[in-house]
């Protein structure tokens, strides 16, 4: 083969040009970066500048024969690529030149190009026929700093909790039978209580720290131990204890809350009925007031009106039972009552029937059961009467006059639980991704026949694309949920309608995302992912139900959509046009923006990576979907259709409104957090992560954006390419990112996540 | 409220017009249908014709006040809608008129409109404020005829097998421990063998019926019993027995095949290694030939070179072991050898080490294990030498000279197993959908406050959209796999490259589809879907691994893509342009078609429901993706990049080629089958099902079609609407369709699939 020669100035540019022209992504602004470098590089003669500039013309790209010569020049140099260098490509370039006996020194301009264009070794380590000294992680980012950013001022308590979980009781093992699993989980629960972790969200006088946000982080971490433990913990301290804390009076709190926090009183939360899964307002259990005895009679009227899937049902002494409260023959709506289930010897009390729900897909360490009540009498003192009670004369009274508002205020106490469920799902995603990414950083597969070592799984583009955007989404959703819990915790007694809408939406999109992330992780680990010892199997089965419980996602998204639409409500009823016209005005503004062909096909990376573009696109979608849904409903109603039917006819549309609302909320909150990061390097990283997530979300609805004319073909394609590119740019940091999730080593027991 | 009046001719048209204008889907061709009816309706005066025609102008639609009047006219009639009428809307129209004391009779023209427009009661039963007599199933199609269409000439044997499964041994129960589950499954396996079902695919002289197609249907039905049983059955009779049948010689068949078929010899199939999951060619186990002893020494060289996930490993006496065959110091590539594992007392033999794989996500009734061999000696007679053996002089000989071709020929025997895996996955989808649809046909939820009965789940548009297109896809994939098995079975000894490519692709898309269908079914059943008693949980966990085993989907799709690209191969090497130009010509033709704005925005239902449009769109995608992938690879290679790296850089693109290829193949084969159905009514039904599936597949890649200019915005939106519409059109038949899957009642044990 003929020996290829280049001049001293040009030689170090050859690897850069080869990389640039092997890539499909060279945008106009990127060409400007290289041009600037060439201009300012003093080591170049004017003649050399001209040659290099010629090779940068996108309209007239270098001939294949030229590009092939570059490749030969690189190969013939016998240079070795060392990925761990600070500027691996620039250092490699020096070596290539030196291999051809051309004496060159460090080139700042090329370093500038390498940094500015975000060229990563894994973009080009396949391209040269040279020896490569691989580096699995760039070590540019420190997991412990990431952990600090993720948990903020909660971190010291979170770390104390992680240490607490080193206790051997929390060591993960397989318990094939539900009886065995339940015994272990009950023991763990009591252990947590004795450490003071269960009462964390309660007021200090009841053994707590009055800190709901750290409580949620504790809940999240329990998913790393065992999904059953997290759920059992949530039922005992969050749902049962929370119902006493939030719906009860001070006498009830004094009597029960400390005992709940230390598990001397085990309780359950009996809301759902077999016949009424998602329709709490339609439950049939009744609590009828008997004035002469000042008592309530709890009763399950029909065969399918029993309480269903009640966690802790087999271990509990008491239940918070939701029932229709009947006073003087009038139904005052759903209220909560404390109903004893068992005596001190754990015998079920008269009139109460409890059945085991049996084996489930997952969470077999949770004792779910069905409960029937047959004319069970409890004193009026057991009515959790903060929002509605019965006075001494036997009359119903409530601080909230509107029954509808009262109902939603009571249910508003469930919002904290919904945030925890989303956090639990996200924890399952984080842990599954941690395991699958660690596996991908160790496992090698196939190879080029000439190479001895097979490639790392994570270095396959398809593998990057299936895992890295999901790691990015975990971080976005993490901050969204942190913010949601902050908003909820700091406004516990105010109007919860807004946060309820927000949480309904976030819970839905995040639990669905997590299901997919866990599934993708399982598949990315192949057969190893199928073995229970590697943990993903249990995370998958345990978190699967999170899309259903504490509110079915489909139902919750409609709730969110109705929240979004509520501004239109008056219009539907009154026929007034003011609010519609106002929105219509905004729509017209969008149209003006999107009709601009420069915007519609703007494909440079500055634009595509700009969070303003992401927020604009997502917000545009939300507003347009909301507007069209409102118009459709309005038109149906104008034609005489009852509003329930009009909503039904737009049901699939409303789900999209709910999703769009939630995605834009998550990203907005994420970027607000990102802007507050003070360290430049880390802030840039989080913006990059935000870009990957946002482009991925936009890409999922690309057909809609194209239909609307908001995206042009070129831009839509560019977004797809940028997702691949960003995934590869984050590849060198992926090990640090997953370690930054902060899952303690002692809980990461999966053998495939270790070196082997 | 004022009483609304219409003339005698117009009155019966009012409900039709109300339905039509409440719907967003009235296309030009549909307006023509109504116009024709009006023209030919003798009961109308010319004046009435004019009024009705006026109401059909899309450019100037009836005012809301008018439409509202129609609604009032309907409500005031106090007519009752009876869905079970042959022409429910036309009959209802008569009643509406009669309610206003207008004397009308049956109207053939309105019947024609109702039929031609495909108006279903569930399109409008919500629209009128009238009493509705619901009908859950239209009973228009008979499940047993559907069953005949699905199983064709195999049906009598399939039915005999279904009856065989009535034996109490096959009754589904929960076995929490793997030991308990394995014991039951082994007993069931022997029971099947004694019924002659295991040997079904073997030649008659070995107790079989030489019928691979029926064998595959048996395998599929075993998924309805238990996933573990299906897999254990596949390992014993398909993989182990199949290796003897297809890779062995007649002496080996005589010695082992009958015993395998009656389970007196239990065997396993030891191919996969821990270190080499998907890369069979890279396995490290060796079989070294010792000429002096005429024996082979089987050896596991390294710690991670053990055989992994080997089904039947704990029950087997013998294994078909894949190893690198070393003859005279030369590696002749991967070959299969029969290696005894245990003695008659079930003691593991010297040099063999077997470990239980432990608990898995699912399939815990299958005894998967790891196997190590330490210098285990077997006679040369144990080499399955159909495609490569060692002669008396100790020299390697093979009827296939090219080692590459030899390797793929041996692996070609796995194709049958891959079809079975896809069939097993699809069976899990069918059963899950059967359960979730039956649940949706029984379970009621929420309601309009004025109605007493809550709506059936299946009557929610979101519920229809999540389940009905998946039922349609099950039918499409069913026929695709029937055809694949036919092609494979009828060409067992010929060139298998084509069918291998086809099956690699179909296995991937169908197992992924099934995972989603099972997941959707679980969620559609809410908490009930999470209980193991309702079966979906086990179907989910058991079939989850089907995306990985018998070839990881990501790897298989690349295999399929490379098959598709093979026409280009010579071009890559030689630089000749002929084949590229040929394809380029086709591309240009596509461009001419797609540039036609009439085609790009053709939204009438005739066009969108036409299978020619579906096939054209899917084929267009395949060809364009193939062409662009080929061009990208070619360009990389021209720039000097090694071909392995060029493929790697286009990896995500190639996955899309593989998927596109498989989808178009499935639909093509489906429509070929559909055209052969002789009964008009059923053929129409299957075309309708094909439309729903095809539009759904096209819709999933809508952003790509829009980017390419193949679809215009209006058409893309229309496709989305048609998917919803077709789902609702199939809604009245969904009960018949799932019953048509033929899952026997005695295996459908889920309590939620029964009346409750």
Automatic annotation (TrEMBL), chains A, B:
**Gene3D superfamilies attached to this UniProt entry:** Acyl-CoA dehydrogenase/oxidase, N-terminal domain, Butyryl-CoA Dehydrogenase, subunit A, domain 2, Butyryl-CoA Dehydrogenase, subunit A, domain 3
What keywords tag this UniProt record? Answer: FAD, Flavoprotein, Oxidoreductase
Residue span(s) of domain Acyl-CoA oxidase C-terminal: 613-753
Q: So which cofactors does this thing need?
A: FAD
Acyl-CoA dehydrogenase/oxidase N-terminal domain: residues covered: 186-258
Organism in which the protein naturally occurs: Croceivirga thetidis
In its UniProt entry, what is this protein called? Acyl-CoA oxidase
Q: According to its UniProt record, which protein family does this protein belong to?
A: Belongs to the acyl-CoA oxidase family.
> Which InterPro entries does the UniProt entry name for this protein?
ACOX_C_alpha1 (IPR055060), Acyl-CoA_Oxase/DH_mid-dom (IPR006091), Acyl-CoA_Oxase/DH_mid-dom_sf (IPR046373), Acyl-CoA_oxidase (IPR012258), Acyl-CoA_oxidase_C (IPR002655), AcylCo_DH-like_C (IPR036250), AcylCoA_DH/ox_N (IPR013786), AcylCoA_DH/ox_N_sf (IPR037069)
Instruction: Indicate the segments forming the Acyl-CoA oxidase/dehydrogenase middle domain, all copies.
Output: 268-376
Occurrences of domain Acyl-CoA oxidase C-alpha1 (ranges): 412-563
